[in-house]
Request: fold
Amino acid sequence: MPIPKKNIPATVDKVDSRYLESLLGYNARRVALTVIDLFMERMAPHDLRPVDFSVLSLIRNNPGITSRQLCTALDILPPNLVGMISTFEKKKLVRRQPHPLDGRAMALFLTVDGEARMALAEPTVTQLEAEVAGRLTPAEFQNLLHLLQKIYLPSEPAPRKR
Amino acid sequence: MPIPKKNIPATVDKVDSRYLESLLGYNARRVALTVIDLFMERMAPHDLRPVDFSVLSLIRNNPGITSRQLCTALDILPPNLVGMISTFEKKKLVRRQPHPLDGRAMALFLTVDGEARMALAEPTVTQLEAEVAGRLTPAEFQNLLHLLQKIYLPSEPAPRKR
DNA sequence: TATTGTTATACTCTATAACTATA
DNA sequence: TATAGTTATAGAGTATAACAATA
Reply:
């Protein structure tokens, strides 16, 4: 039988977060913040924020990708990408080139410096991912990625609006 | 045998995002954005952003909780909570009361209006969660929450820094 | 001396409108 | 007429420093 509490006005000793923890949105955001915090810490020597890494990674794996394609893939608004690309150009990480088939567009490529930067940064990301996933078995980790993708990647490639 | 491509300069037709999709941080952020977008859409009639809902939910389930406890539980900085609480007070959703055991602190409670607002809002959240999880079986959904929590909820309750 | 709540403020991130060059 | 890229700018979100009152 539980010991009766003293009759004091309502105070909270341990916060009950169980309801929030039953919500996918809450849990996904907490995990995203956890990983992003560690990411920024570890990637500081490489001078890359998460979004920088995402952009450079897509250019690396898709040479000649356009700004518009980057914006669609990463859910970035075009005006907010312009500054990033300009900064990358100033730092000699990215090179812009007229698109061969569309005179309005610019094709994006990593420079040699950009390739080198990413070659150093990717293992750092791999390492921090491994640490974050440390409490999960490899099978659990793969399952987690798969379940997350089932949420945001429609099997039918219907256009996403935002 | 694949048909040889025409010899044109590098252009990208379909963006290859497979590397990013192998990263937990990327997937968690995409899911968080997906759920938050739907959340804001559905909760607009209730005039509650995700963070508003989280704060009111914690007050509801922890009557007498302090601002400091809210900040710790939700990873909000104290200066950024002040305005929210003030707004809630103006809207008669939350009531502040001197803390019975700590003269510096304020104990927070929902008003009758606040309870009513949350009583309407919670079913909306339950509904949208069910929709987002629609592609998953109930067992998969529970497993997803469990795996996410293993990432950000340490079994040993070590203090998080940020 | 440390902590709670608060103010003021700066910085970053995200969003909107409008323009140009080209399709 | 629609789209890619760009500029300028507004708004929301997040961060730091400093202070008064209390522990």
Chain A touches chain B through 68 residues (CB under 8 Å). Residues 66-68, 78-79, 81-82, 99, 102-106 of chain A lie near DNA strand D (CB under 10 Å from a C1').
